[in-house]
Amino acid sequence: MDDTRTLLDIKEYPDTEVQKDRVLTLEEWQEKWVSRKIRFHQEQGHRFADLGHSVVGVEISELGIQEFFTEQNLSYSEEPIMEIPGAKVFKSSKGNISLYCCNLFDLPRANIGKFDRIWDRGALVAINPGDRERYADIMLSLTRKGFRYLLAVLSYDPTKHAGPPFYVPDAEIKKLLGSVCNIHCLEKTDVFEEQHKSWGIDYLVEKLYLCTEK
């Protein structure tokens, strides 16, 4: 029997609201960086900027942003965001990477413009389930005509792990983006590792979707 095929064909958990009341505060996210509870973090970055693109990101942890520039061996500057008290933007010396250190829900106040492409990895799965609609509205408001939105989510048994990362089923993606986007699942990948056993789960599948304008 092909175990991988069997795993990737597992039906989604029927109760899509099992984690709906789960909430993490911004302070708890920042503490994850301080205490190094960052299994979601990838040391090897995605090479978008190296391909000639201008890249904009948002992260609540200043430590996380500083570590990104250090790991990528990039010099940078920082400046306050006048529209968002207490927030900062970190810019690479070449000017092709700008990382905003703020609450994502405050980001539209910074007038950052609109985007042709969105790469959503570790974002929707980190948003408190009760905030997903507001998050989706913001992300779609930042897109240009003809946009392409690449979205990675995780599938597992949410009765065994409270999240984050949170379980995001197909139905939720259609609910959040389906009125505006054509949604295509590009691939499903078994990403379960030994470390995930500590979550109490026995499978973990990453699903990659391409969302395009209707």
TrEMBL record:
<dbReference type="GO" id="GO:0008119">
    <property type="term" value="F:thiopurine S-methyltransferase activity"/>
</dbReference>
<dbReference type="GO" id="GO:0005737">
    <property type="term" value="C:cytoplasm"/>
</dbReference>
<comment type="subunit">
    <text>Monomer.</text>
</comment>
<keyword id="KW-0007">Acetylation</keyword>
<dbReference type="Pfam" id="PF05724">
    <property type="entry name" value="TPMT"/>
</dbReference>
<dbReference type="InterPro" id="IPR008854">
    <property type="entry name" value="TPMT"/>
</dbReference>
<dbReference type="InterPro" id="IPR029063">
    <property type="entry name" value="SAM-dependent_MTases_sf"/>
</dbReference>
<protein>
    <recommendedName>
        <fullName>Thiopurine S-methyltransferase</fullName>
        <ecNumber>2.1.1.67</ecNumber>
    </recommendedName>
</protein>
<dbReference type="InterPro" id="IPR025835">
    <property type="entry name" value="Thiopurine_S-MeTrfase"/>
</dbReference>
<keyword id="KW-0808">Transferase</keyword>
<keyword id="KW-0949">S-adenosyl-L-methionine</keyword>
<keyword id="KW-0489">Methyltransferase</keyword>
<dbReference type="GO" id="GO:0032259">
    <property type="term" value="P:methylation"/>
</dbReference>
<comment type="similarity">
    <text>Belongs to the class I-like SAM-binding methyltransferase superfamily. TPMT family.</text>
</comment>
<keyword id="KW-0963">Cytoplasm</keyword>
